[in-house]
Amino acid sequence: MSNEINETDIFSSNSSVLIRGTLLNGKRQDIFITEEGNIGEISESISGELKNEAEFIIDGSKTVASPGFVNTHTHAAMTLLRGYADDMHLQEWLSEKIWPLEAHLCGEDVYWGTKLACIEMIKSGTVAFNDMYFFMDEAAKAVDECGMKAVLSHGFIDFGSEEKRESEIKATEKLFSDVKKMNNQKIRAAVGPHAPYTVAPEGLSWCSEYAKENDSLLHIHLSETETEVKDCVNQHGMKPAKLLDKCGCLSENTVAAHCCWLDDEECALLGKRGVSVSHNPVSNMKLAVNRAMPYQQLIDAGANVTLGTDGCSSNNNLDILEEMKTAAILQKFFWNSDTLLPAHEAIKMTTESGAKALGFGTGKIETGAPADIVLLKTNISCMTPLYNPESNIVYACGSNAVDTVLCSGRVLMYDGNIPGEEEVYQKAAETAFNLVNRKENADN
Ligand SMILES: O=c1[nH]cnc2c1ncn2[C@@H]1O[C@H](CO)[C@@H](O)[C@H]1O
Ligand SMILES: [Zn+2]
């Protein structure tokens, strides 16, 4: 038979694959994946013609199969800034360290930084992410090569300047045209107004209009700190969520990151508009924003609550498994409720709700869905014993449990291996070093 695993060929796209595995509910199932990358059949035993059709058979007997994980808030190329500025106040961290260094970024930095980010995300079972950064044509190229799914936005910052707004509009329009030219179904452009405190209402309104015209997502930071909420009330006479709504920025196509300082009325508004919220617990704790996103209020209001890591400068990794655990324990700790955000809901946030937010399928392993699947090892200490796979994934496992990752049927990682990862580590380290040197030379 020719469907033995060959380590080189399995990474090529457009192969049909048969996984002999076990689902999160403990059911032994075979999953047949078509050449188009969709789940063709799920049943107890796939044999005969369909089995013969499979170019590869993956033995998942020592794994459990979860829907692929979705990271709904990243600044992927900030992997290059990992460890550059830690242990600081958020506003100083941004304005004194991060933005001055980002001013020296070039396209090549973003390319290698995003490649590194993709490897890191795949290693923790992530298949799709929502990214806001700069030089996004280079980010798109990196994502295309890695085979992941992504929604990409240019971080639109105008600080109230009309001239800056014009250049941000051009950058946004260029991204939409670049992504269209790529013609990759897994990559979409979005509009990315950075935050209500960095974009004037005119800019916010342009962004919401452009997102509507192009039927795209709108990705924004919202109510991360108490200071920004107070500043917004002083400057605009209303809380940030109200301001966004006034500018047309709240809809089912909105992904709002952080949302730590929303009040009850704002939660209700986000729910009413069908907004997706991205909870970023690690970043929030590291930057001591001092309040946890009101998870239960948002859920009760009908908002779509999802999970994100934020960038590597405030996290400092893109490990979505670590993020799930942190979300589940932070919510319990902060809201003093040991039953809040149980493991099953942490998984749901990271699969179904994330996929819904980004418009990438259902986030479920089901017939007809894109084959976005993570196989997690069961012959590893964090999965032993296996009373409840979801509990082990959220509370016990690290990314060393991730064995194999498929994104729309394409194998991105097999048996812990991702092709070409060594080169990416070397290039990203070199690029980061050059970036800091460029800044230091310019400063002197
Ligand atoms: O936690 C955060 N709060 C606000 N801005 C952030 C955070 N993390 C990264 N960025 C900044 O967002 C822009 C992306 O377009 C970048 O300037 C990045 O440094
Ligand atoms: Zn962010």
Automatic annotation (TrEMBL):
Binding site for Zn(2+): H73, H75, H221, D310
Organism per entry: Methanochimaera problematica
Protein name: 5'-deoxyadenosine deaminase
A GO BP entry: S-adenosylmethionine biosynthetic process
Biological or metabolic pathway of the protein: Amino-acid biosynthesis; S-adenosyl-L-methionine biosynthesis
Pfam families hit by this protein: Amidohydro_1 (PF01979)
Sites where the protein binds substrate: E102, H194, E224, D310
Family stated for the protein in its record: Belongs to the metallo-dependent hydrolases superfamily. MTA/SAH deaminase family.
Entry keyword Cytoplasm: no
Catalytic activity: S-methyl-5'-thioadenosine + H2O + H(+) = S-methyl-5'-thioinosine + NH4(+); S-adenosyl-L-homocysteine + H2O + H(+) = S-inosyl-L-homocysteine + NH4(+); adenosine + H2O + H(+) = inosine + NH4(+); 5'-deoxyadenosine + H2O + H(+) = 5'-deoxyinosine + NH4(+)
Keywords per UniProt: Hydrolase, Metal-binding, Zinc
Note: SAH is a product of SAM methyltransferases and is known to be a feedback inhibitor of these enzymes. As a result of this inhibition, organisms have evolved efficient enzymes to metabolize SAH via different pathways. The pathway found in methanogens differs from the canonical pathway, it uses the deamination of S-adenosyl-L-homocysteine to form S-inosyl-L-homocysteine for the regeneration of SAM from S-adenosyl-L-homocysteine. 5'-deoxyadenosine is a radical SAM enzyme reaction product which strongly inhibits radical SAM enzymes.
Names of the cofactor(s): Zn(2+)
EC assignment: 3.5.4.41, 3.5.4.31, 3.5.4.4, 3.5.4.28
Subunit structure: Homotetramer.
Function: Catalyzes the deamination of three SAM-derived enzymatic products, namely 5'-deoxyadenosine, S-adenosyl-L-homocysteine, and 5'-methylthioadenosine, to produce the inosine analogs. Can also deaminate adenosine. The preferred substrate for this enzyme is 5'-deoxyadenosine, but all these substrates are efficiently deaminated. Likely functions in a S-adenosyl-L-methionine (SAM) recycling pathway from S-adenosyl-L-homocysteine (SAH) produced from SAM-dependent methylation reactions.
Boundaries of every Amidohydrolase-related domain copy: 65-411
Top-tier EC class: hydrolase
Entry's cofactor comment: Binds 1 zinc ion per subunit.
GO MF annotation list: 5'-deoxyadenosine deaminase activity; 5'-methylthioadenosine deaminase activity; adenosine deaminase activity; metal ion binding; S-adenosylhomocysteine deaminase activity
InterPro entries named in the record: Amidohydro-rel, Deaminase_MtaD/DadD, Metal-dep_hydrolase_composite, Metal_Hydrolase, MTA/SAH_deaminase
Keyword Ribonucleoprotein: no
